[in-house]
Design brief:
The chain is of the alpha+beta class. Helix content is about 50%, strand content about 10%.
Length: about 210
């Protein structure tokens, strides 16, 4: 048995986790999930029935379930410390700041904007992201002076943060600004990114036949 069971659908955020799995060189089995017929094994592991869901078959009979993309990415870096994708001591502030900024305000702002949800001006302070424009401007400023989240070195935070940028540029939910495009270009050149993307693109093509 592989170390991980990976519940996913290629047309989902599961692409983020597949990339992370390839970055750490994890041995995993893929369980493809049909939106209209979710397997009991998925809902037993994750009552919300969401993908991606990752099941870690640990030593002995220990089974750990990890959900939420940002958490899965960091977990994989933790259990594959030899991959050197965790932050070094002086990188931790940026690593966690960007990781949770992307998982919180950026995710919320992009979804709200796509849904056409307007935050009333007098309630901007109640929304975790404030406004879409403010969040995108802050995100751009964060990435403008560095190659990766922690500076010159790629870490697991880049898998999650970079996926937000990569997907945002592809689907137009994040504007095509130089800082975003340059960052995405660096990530798309990674071997693990291209290997994982090729698998999901093949699966999508097969599903659409």
């Amino acid at each position: 048995m592989a170390n991980f069971t990976f519940f996913t659908n290629p047309m989902s955020r599961g692409q983020i986790v597949r990339w992370a799995l390839h970055e750490v060189g994890a041995a995993y089995d893929t369980e493809l999930v049909d939106w209209s017929d979710k397997p009991r094994s998925l809902t037993d592991a994750n009552p919300m029935g969401k993908v991606p869901t990752l099941v870690h078959h640990h030593e002995g009979d220990h089974i750990h379930v990890i959900t939420e993309c940002a958490a899965i990415c960091h977990y994989l870096a933790e259990v594959h410390a030899d991959a050197d994708l965790l932050p070094h001591a002086h990188e931790k502030a940026d690593y966690f700041r960007y990781l949770f900024f992307a998982a919180g305000p950026v995710e919320q702002a992009v979804v709200a904007n796509a849904m056409g949800w307007e935050v009333p001006e007098d309630r901007v302070g109640m929304a975790g992201f404030g406004t879409y424009e403010r969040t995108i401007d802050a995100f751009e400023a964060m990435l403008a002076d560095r190659d990766f989240v922690c500076g010159a070195r790629f870490t697991m935070a880049d898998v999650y943060v970079g996926s937000q940028v990569d997907w945002g540029l592809q689907f137009g939910s994040i504007p095509a600004r130089p800082a975003f495009e340059a960052y995405a270009g660096r990530l798309r050149a990674r071997q693990a990114y291209t290997a994982a993307k090729a698998i999901d693109m093949k699966l999508i093509a097969e599903m659409q036949k």
